[in-house]
Amino acid sequence: MSVLRTKMPKYLKQLAAVYERKKDSTRHGLIANGRWELREGVDFDNYNESTGHSLVLFAPMEALAEIEPDDLTILSNAIQADIQRISTAQNEHVHDVLLEAEDENDPEYQGATPFSDKPTVNPDHVSIWKPGLARIFISHRDGEKARVQNLADALEGYGMSCFVAHETIPADEEWQKVIEDGLDTMELMVAVVTDDFHDSVYCMQEVGYALGRGVPVISLKVGKKDPRGFISKKQAQKGSLDNPIKAAKDLFPTIGDRLRRLERLNDILVNSFCGAQDWSDARSRFERLKSHVEKLTQEQVSKIVAAFAKNDQLYRAAYLVNHHRRLIKYLDSATDGSWVIKDRKLVDQNTKGGYDDLDDDVPF
Fold first, then answer.
1. In 180-191, which positions are buried (b, 16+ CB within 10 angstroms) versus exposed (e)?
2. H helices of 157-297, where?
3. What is the C-alpha radius of gyration for the chain, rounded to an integer number of angstroms?
4. Alpha-carbon distance 81 to 326, whole Å?
5. What is the CATH T-level fold of the domain 123-261, as seen in this structure?
6. Distance between the two ends of the chain, CA-based, in angstroms?
7. C-alpha angle with apex 320: 315 to 326, nearest 5 degrees?
8. 189, 213 contact by CB (below 8 A)
9. DSSP one-letter code for 316
């Protein structure tokens, strides 16, 4: 292990403190809200006999989207120069700083080191989330929890696993710890802004937690008062909790846009389709999948093949497999393949064995 790697946490904390003192929120956020990784030995300076490493800073997509591409280069060079000024590592240097968006599917991001000393919570170990779905934390007032739960149930059909405080928490778990784990692992927050929303200390803390982590916050205005504070800078989405199915349908395009920036939407829609609960559910989830995902990866296709073999709600759904051949036509288009149904298997005649291995990790 390089000496620079062992010293990097100290250097990054020092820089974050300097940027915070200077009120440079952009540079501070790029360091403090993400993770870092060192790609060792990318360069060697013969003159100084020094080995160069690339420092990769993984920052929230929302934070990077606010910065123009040319400015990203300027910021990268500035951070690299600042680290070099404070570094005392002998015969090692930071060759460059690379700014990349957080991506849970990226193996390098998965192994990256969080800036915070707080241990990273693995979303798969948090009982409130359903595997494979988007992790949506819904912040709301206590009096709305029943109606918010109805909204959460409707959003599940769109591939969203929603946390509703006290409704979602298992009876034998410490509620405050579960809420903190939910805040640490959420991918997006929906703030249900009632007229008394801002009177709640907990709601304000939850929103602040999300903004501090760089997590997207969508304000769903169901009262007469507009959002206040930091979330007021973005237009709130008007809605109602009286019809949760309509509310979920209206919210999905906004949530989908944010998740698409996180490069998560396609996987979520595939997982949602694979977990269809009945034939009608299979139809609606298939239409959403077809409308939003034009091309499928091999991993996504393998999930669909495995789910079709195991889930009767897909295999026996007439809408998918009748003479219109909707599922087959979609797979042909999304994979450039030639698909057929043999017995209970989806088979691509253009691929020998490529999708025959059923994936046991089907999300239902």
1. ebbbbbbbbbbb
2. 175-185, 201-213, 244-261, 265-274, 279-292
3. 23
4. 56
5. Rossmann fold (3.40.50)
6. 41
7. 140
8. no
9. T
C-alpha distances (whole Å) from 59 to each of 37, 227, 255 are 12, 26, 20
| C-alpha triplet 88, 94, 98: angle, nearest 5° | 145
Contact 232, 203 (CB under 8 A): no
| Phi, psi of 43, deg, nearest 5 | -155, 150
Q: What is the pLDDT of residues 130-167, one digit of tens each?
A: 988 999 999 999 999 999 999 999 999 999 999 998 77
In the three-class reduction of DSSP (H, G, I as helix; E, B as strand; rest coil), residue 45 is classed as strand
- Tokens 């760089």 -> residue: 214
The CATH number, out of the four listed (3.40.50, 3.30.70, 1.10.3470, 2.60.40), of the domain defined by the range 3-114: 3.30.70
Q: Which two three-digit tokens encode residue 135?
A: 């992790």
pTM of whole model > 0.70?
no
Q: Kindly report the number of other CB atoms within 10 A of residue 206's CB atom.
A: 23
Residue type, 29: G
Closest by Cα among 111, 115, 75, 113 to 96: 75
Each residue of 281-327: pLDDT tens digit?
999 999 999 999 999 999 999 999 999 999 999 999 999 999 999 99
Question: In the chain, where are the structural domains located?
Answer: 3-114, 123-261, 276-348
